[in-house]
Amino acid sequence: MLRFGVVLTYILLIYFQTVVGIWRYKNILEEKELFIVDRNIFLEYEGSSFLEWQYPEGCDVNNKSSPHAVMWCKAPGFQAVKPLLSDMSTDKEEERHLYICDSFFRLAWYAVIPLLRNASEHDSQEFELATVLAWTDHELYKGGKALDWKTNSSYMSNILSIPKTATILTAAFGSHPASLSALVMYTDSVQLSVLTSYENEGVWKNRTLWSKNVLQGPFQMLFVSAALETLLVWNKDTMLYSFHNDSEWRYLQIMDSSNLSQEAGGSHIHHMIIDHSLNMLVKMENNILFFCKFGTNKLFRLPTWNDPGRSVVLYLNQKEQITMLTMLDRSLHVQKYPLQMEIRSAMREEVHSCPYIGFTHNMNRPVYYIDKGEGVELWAQIVNHEGENINVTLSRNKDHVLHITESTHFESAHHLDTTNKTFNIYQDADYRDMTNNSDLIWNSSDIVSMELLPTQIANSCSLPKNRISHFFVGCPPNRHIRVIKPQRTPCQMHTFDNYTIPGFVLSNSSKDLLVFYDWKSFGCVLRIHYKDEFRPDIELYDGEAFVRSVDANFIVWENFNRKDYYFNATMRQVACLHEAQTWKSMLVDEKRPEEAWGPHNYRSCFVDTTEKLGNLDQPYEIMNRSSKNYLSFSEEYNAIYVFNLKIVDPNYSFCNLRAVFAVQTYGISMVDQLSPHYQFLIPFLISLILLCFLFYRYTSIFRDMLQKKCL
Ligand SMILES: *[C@@H]1O[C@H](CO)[C@@H](O)[C@H](O)[C@H]1NC(C)=O
Ligand SMILES: *[C@@H]1O[C@H](CO)[C@@H](O)[C@H](O)[C@H]1NC(C)=O
Ligand SMILES: *[C@@H]1O[C@H](CO)[C@@H](O)[C@H](O)[C@H]1NC(C)=O
Ligand SMILES: *[C@@H]1O[C@H](CO)[C@@H](O)[C@H](O)[C@H]1NC(C)=O
Ligand SMILES: *[C@@H]1O[C@H](CO)[C@@H](O)[C@H](O)[C@H]1NC(C)=O
Ligand SMILES: *[C@@H]1O[C@H](CO)[C@@H](O)[C@H](O)[C@H]1NC(C)=O
């Protein structure tokens, strides 16, 4: 039987005998805060013993004897509100302490950015993550792409089959974006196991949790998104959760009992939700709600919001608001649940006080991209009452990929301690001296998840929504290089369609080559005087965003194998310590230029090695932003060159950084251009004319002589 993890299946029709009065409220914004300005707070009472609303002086109610009334408050702060019930009633209604904010603004707006499972992924790849898991006793399936009903056979794919001696109890997506897990029981073992795999790897890792006696099924589980895997497992009465890759297990408790059922009048756990700020709500079948900040293990009960007999499910909408879906009169009603207000109202007592006053940080992007040699600086600040021993921790899942250095700025004033921790996150592998098997390392990318939290939290603490960010170590999306067009150099488009390269300047053939210029991929041609030297300057871009000028070493090669361009510096002039790499030395084995030379086999000539000194009077064929090494062109004819450019510094980027630029030289007259071909003709022509002249002279003299003889 397939058990789909879809919200609607949660809706169970449970009926209870007792019906008590309940009351709730809402406002139009339905956000965390209620504002004093013009905001109507709608009060509603469900039940039969209502008399009137009891409310403070600072507020007004349109009709206090109506169970559906509207309230306005003119004064900020906590406002105690409750319904007064008739004397006959044995119910005692709970008082709510609604916190009304003093707000300057009369309207609020927000943008909704959908937090999809794929949204935080690197586009970490052309890899689509699954969004649905389904399982049978021995098989696990995933589904991802939009469901195409015509070919729905391919929607789900089998990702795990286990032997008959084992049973899949439940499955869930993991703490990390690409991971998924199945809870498995083996018939011959008393231990429960979790099988975990990364979707892009497909390798299943097994780890045992605890014996079947600790908690008995049927089980449900949920991984809390975290840097270190955090798992929550529960049956109908008890919840257990793990910390830090299962190194620590705790029961979620109410008072001193670990059994939620007892505290909820015998009702069972229906389901639970947890938002990005670690607010966790456990909903019982009779609609009793328990709350805790995940990580503290003490749950506490929130005021009743719904009739115990009603079918209700909770879900988080895309704005991270908790929403209630209620079945009423055979139709579904959607209603926001003001969790923050309810927590605030219920936790006014001192017992719940938070160990800190404020916690802020600037780790606010879901993904940070870190290329070679780059880093990210983050800070996190915590403010607390003097003497509370509290700090900030940055946890992460892969220690070896990134380096972190920390520095702390501490300040104490007016009995308040302020700790500002700065984290420098960087990647410092040295890719320069990699040996032959370096290709893998050189290109390998990785994702590290990091999480920022105070060292202690309590139920009343507020946490920023961004707690986790993923650090993608690799080539950032759309990163590329561009050759800058020098300002005074004209760059022309569509001035010709084709041109011919004479065979004697080609390195790979002696036949003339007709080139059809591809304006779309080669771009404009830079018009350069034939006597001028030229060195391309390069800039790094992420999409359309300029990143920085590139100072790394690069090489060029002519796209059509022209060899009539030169470098004006020699290896000696640039101070090489030994003979540098050249196209000639790299192009052995008849490799194509694209593969022959690059970051994977680049060796600097400025590093002292035991290599032989060699001939340092050869041209140096590597350029960079600061080098005195320039390209020079043929001085015999105007020519068109299409250059490919590639960065060869292995330490520079994970990306394959290449560009194309084209040069058209000018300044040589047509006659001068002819000379190389026809130079040898001129002495020949002169000789020929001279010969003709001599022949003519000779024949005329001869004819004269003949004439004279005849006479
Ligand atoms: C106030 O509410 C009560 C109960 O719903 C209703 O009977 C009464 O007519 C209302 N008064 C006004 C002025 O609307
Ligand atoms: C914390 O320190 C960093 C620099 O170390 C600074 O840029 C940041 O603004 C500080 N944070 C706060 C809230 O002052
Ligand atoms: C390569 O880059 C790393 C990281 O920036 C740096 O630590 C290392 O010194 C660099 N190597 C060389 C030879 O410049
Ligand atoms: C080359 O381009 C010229 C016009 O620029 C055109 O007249 C000629 O036919 C083209 N040659 C070929 C072989 O297409
Ligand atoms: C190469 O040409 C550039 C630009 O003309 C010049 O600045 C540089 O000094 C030349 N390099 C050498 C080694 O002559
Ligand atoms: C740039 O090239 C010059 C030699 O032309 C060299 O001395 C310098 O170290 C190179 N710069 C970089 C960043 O490699």
From TrEMBL:
Q: How does it sit in the membrane?
A: Single-pass type I membrane protein
Q: Which residues cross the membrane?
A: 680-699
The residue ranges of the CATSPERE first N-terminal domain are: 18-100
Q: Which residues form the CATSPERD/E C-terminal domain?
A: 504-697
Cellular location of this protein? Answer: Cell projection, Cilium, Flagellum membrane
User: What Pfam families does the database record attribute to this sequence?
Assistant: Beta-prop_CATSPERE, CATSPERD-E_C, CATSPERE_Ig-like, CATSPERE_NTD1
Q: Which residues form the CATSPERE Ig-like domain?
A: 359-465
Domain CATSPERE beta-propeller span(s) in chain numbering: 130-346
* InterPro entries for the chain: CATSPERD/E (IPR028751), CATSPERD/E_C (IPR053814), CATSPERE_beta-prop (IPR053816), CATSPERE_Ig-like (IPR053815), CATSPERE_NTD1 (IPR053818)
Q: Which UniProt keywords apply?
A: Cell membrane, Cell projection, Cilium, Disulfide bond, Flagellum, Glycoprotein, Membrane, Signal, Transmembrane, Transmembrane helix
Regarding protein family, the annotation reads: Belongs to the CATSPERD family.
Q: What is this protein called?
A: Catsper channel auxiliary subunit epsilon
Species this chain originates from: Cirrhinus molitorella
What lineage, starting at the top, does this entry show?
Answer: Eukaryota, Metazoa, Chordata, Craniata, Vertebrata
